[in-house]
């Protein structure tokens, strides 16, 4: 059983050093490391922790990253395509325009993160948790949020086609101008969602969902009707 944690403090980590640590199979805690634009593709980094690291445009394509932790990292344009991120935890990270296409996000979580413009198409796995996170103009078609409580999640302008929101609850969240073709909302509680940009012709896709009086008035207002 491994008891030691190798800590990398500041400064760049060379590919040779990284490969050595990965081969050794030791858990690594990287603190404030400069790793921007480095190549970590395909490496086995299970259980590693990245804290306040610069990971902008870093390539983790196909890497094995299950059980990893990412705290307050700058990771705009990071590549996680086809990576195993099962049980990974992201907290307070900038992941704007990240590429997570085809990654395994089973039991992964994103809290207080920025995923504006991120590509999460074709991701795999269930129970991906999202809280207090920006997903403005992100692409996450076909994902299942069924039964989840979505707290302060901004999906403004996001591609959510064919997503499953059945029995989901929205709290202080936004679906403003999102693409929702084919999405399902049976039993969803939308009273805490900003539905701005919704037209009456779109209302059918929310069949079976609960909306507030204010939201209903907004929809009927398009017909010039008022609720007494």
Detailed description of the structure:
The protein contains two helices and eleven strands, in the order E-H-E-E-E-E-E-E-E-E-E-E-H. It has 228 residues and is mostly beta strands. The strands form two sheets. Strands 1-2-3-4-5-6-7-8-9 form a nine-stranded parallel sheet, with no helix packed on it. A two-stranded parallel ribbon has the order 10-11. Helix 1 links the parallel strand 1 (6-9) and strand 2 (28-31). The chain is elongated and about 65 Å long. It starts with 5 loop residues before the first strand and ends in a 7-residue tail after the last helix.
Set down the secondary structure blueprint.
Elements: E1 6-9, H1 15-24, E2 28-31, E3 49-51, E4 69-71, E5 89-91, E6 109-111, E7 129-134, E8 149-154, E9 169-171, E10 173-174, E11 193-194, H2 213-221
Parallel strand pairs: 1-2, 2-3, 3-4, 4-5, 5-6, 6-7, 7-8, 8-9, 10-11
List keywords for this structure.
228 residues, 2 helices, mainly beta, elongated, 9-stranded parallel sheet
């Amino acid at each position: 059983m491994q008891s030691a944690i190798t800590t990398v403090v500041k400064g760049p980590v060379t590919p040779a050093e990284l490969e050595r640590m990965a081969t050794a199979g030791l858990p690594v805690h990287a603190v404030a490391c400069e790793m921007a634009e480095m190549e970590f593709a395909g490496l086995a980094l299970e259980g590693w922790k990245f804290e306040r690291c610069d990971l902008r445009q870093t390539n983790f394509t196909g890497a094995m990253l299950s059980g990893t932790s990412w705290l307050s990292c700058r990771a705009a344009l990071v590549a996680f395509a086809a990576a195993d991120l099962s049980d990974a935890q992201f907290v307070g990270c900038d992941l704007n325009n990240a590429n997570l296409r085809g990654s395994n996000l089973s039991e992964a979580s994103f809290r207080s993160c920025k995923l504006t413009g991120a590509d999460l198409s074709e991701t795999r796995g269930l129970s991906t948790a999202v809280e207090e996170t920006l997903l403005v103009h992100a692409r996450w078609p076909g994902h299942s949020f069924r039964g989840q409580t979505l707290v302060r999640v901004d999906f403004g302008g996001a591609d959510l086609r064919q997503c499953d929101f059945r029995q989901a609850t929205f709290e202080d969240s936004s679906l403003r101008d999102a693409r929702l073709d084919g999405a399902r909302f049976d039993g969803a509680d939308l009273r805490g969602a900003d539905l701005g940009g919704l037209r009456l012709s779109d209302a059918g896709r929310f069949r079976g969902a609960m909306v507030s009086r204010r939201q209903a008035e907004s929809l009927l207002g398009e017909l010039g009707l008022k609720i007494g």
